[in-house]
Design goal:
Layout (H helix, E strand, L loop, with lengths): L1 E2 L5 E2 L2 H15 L34 E6 L10 E6 L5 H9 L4 H5 L12 E6 L4 E6 L8 H15 L7 E6 L2 E2 L2 E2 L5 E2 L28
Parallel strand pairs: 6-7
Antiparallel strand pairs: 1-2, 3-4, 5-6, 7-8, 9-10
Helix pairs in contact: 2-4
Length: 213
Amino acid sequence: MRIDRLGRPVLVRPVLATLALAGVLVSCGIDSDTSPRPIRDSDRPDITTPAAPSAGPTIGTDRIYLLAPESPNDVQRLRPAQRNVGDSATQRLQSLFSALSIVETSQRLRTALPDGLHLHTAVLQASGTLIVDVSDELLDLTSTNLIEAVAQIVFTASEVRNVQRVDLLVDGRARQWPASDGELQTGALTVYDYPGFVESTQPAFPAVPSPDS
């Protein structure tokens, strides 16, 4: 026990005990590592693995036209496919010329457009004619494949607002293109040059029985 200047006793034991307790608390802290140590699973942060990117275009609200699955003894039809590609003719046609998505492939959709085909320009005139200039891979197609490929371009381009007809060029030069019956057309094409080419969305109804049956 100590005596202060006024002659009063001073207790030092509680103070020492308090200091000792503080030392114990400090010693319970996290020590600095002097070497690498493994981290327990419970101490690891929760890291979520990012989702893998989707292959090919995704399903959306903009329509392009692909070939419906082949059926025995049936005429090939076009089927609209939904993609998120944008409103312009350039965006729509560039998407049409790109690879099919995983979803489209799983649905057995196809395209008649040749590999390597690319779009030079797509310019919409005030008259409603869309001038589409493409590379010359399109000229490698013949017969039915060429009709289907041109129909895909015409129907897809006609989905764009204010497009009424399509003038299809190859490397800046005008060409004659076959309509659905194979007859060569001069000038711009419309969807009416390919009647019945789009697959009907109307369900098949049974035939109405005749009165005698």
